[in-house]
Amino acid sequence: MIETNDSYIHSAKPFYLLPEAIISIITGGLIYILFRTDSLVMFGWFEQLRVSEFIYHIRDADLFPQINSFKTLINTVPGGLWTFSFTSFLLFIWNLEITNRNIIYFISVLSAAVASEILQLTGLIPGTFNYFDIISYIAGTILPLLIHLRKIKNKII
After folding, report:
1. Which domain holds residue 109?
2. What angle do CA 50, 55, 57 make, to 5 degrees?
3. b/e per residue, 94-112, with b = 16+ CB within 10 A?
């Protein structure tokens, strides 16, 4: 019979969450860089960093010519990927434990994202309100929790 040290298994950091978080945030960023309008603030940053020529060279290559017909996805998916990344990273930081002390962090990113959409609807911040963005934020927050549901240690009283 093989003995296992259950305390080691439960205390080991879930490093598999890091690639999940990193890949999702990079993918969301690449969608912005490659397919979103160049009037976004970040394109000014690229100019300041002197990488805009490189960025425009990649954008002009038109590597994915059919993707522009999916405008809703281009505009919606990055937000969901970023909330997915945030939630995965929080799961990593807290070793797959959700407690009374850290649950506010899980809720905060979703609340901030949804609030930004509501503020766009009211005109208090610039942007275009979109129900699909809200759905994307919710999905991006919930999916990592569902994917890792069996491993999450719920310690909420």
Report:
1. 15-155
2. 115
3. bebebeeeeeeebeebbee
| Count of domains for the chain | 1
How would residue 10 be classed by pLDDT, with cut points 50, 70 and 90?
low
Q: Is residue 10 part of a domain?
A: no
Two structure tokens written together for 106: 């899980």
Integer-rounded Cα radius of gyration of the chain? 19
Closest CA to 153 of 3, 14, 5, 20: 14
Q: In the predicted model, what is the mean pLDDT of residues 110-116?
A: 96
Whole-model pTM: value is 0.82
Domain annotation covers residue 82: yes
Nearest to 82, CA basis, from 145, 20, 5: 20
